Amino acid sequence: KGFGLFFVQCNPAQGKRAIAAIRARFPQKQLVEIKVNRESKTLYENLLGLYQADAFDIACVTGLEQAMYQYEDTKRLAGWTSEEIYSYSWKGLPPLLNHLNRQREAFEANLPVALIFLVPSFLIDYFVQRAPDFFDWRSGFFKLLDNSDELKQSLQELADKDYQEY
Length: 166
Hints:
Helices cover 52% and strands 16% of the residues. With 166 residues, it is α/β, with parallel strands linked by helices.
């Protein structure tokens, strides 16, 4: 009941299975999936608008890594060194993480939902180092481990996609 903030460290295939498992386990709950893209700089307003239009109980957020890739690409084009881009310093904060840090109280006050971020492992480091105020509000942290068959399947799916996409 009420607001809950959860982080699930997983690969995209595991994330899809986790969402399906949540739907199966809680069929009475309304679940929405939010896919973040490279241009995403905010999340709160989008979630609040969706909630006000049609209340839901669970929001699963995927694709957050895309916004981080965009941030890293922008800094690289601006002439930042690899050390400056990947170090967790004061010099730069991805816009989406800055937004989440600033809006953390608004999430809790206005969105009485379970907010679940399904993210790859490197993004957990981003949250811990660059959005600690938001990450500290978590209600739970879960880590889904890869087994070798799942890892091979995920790598094969990546290899089968168009190279230019990556």
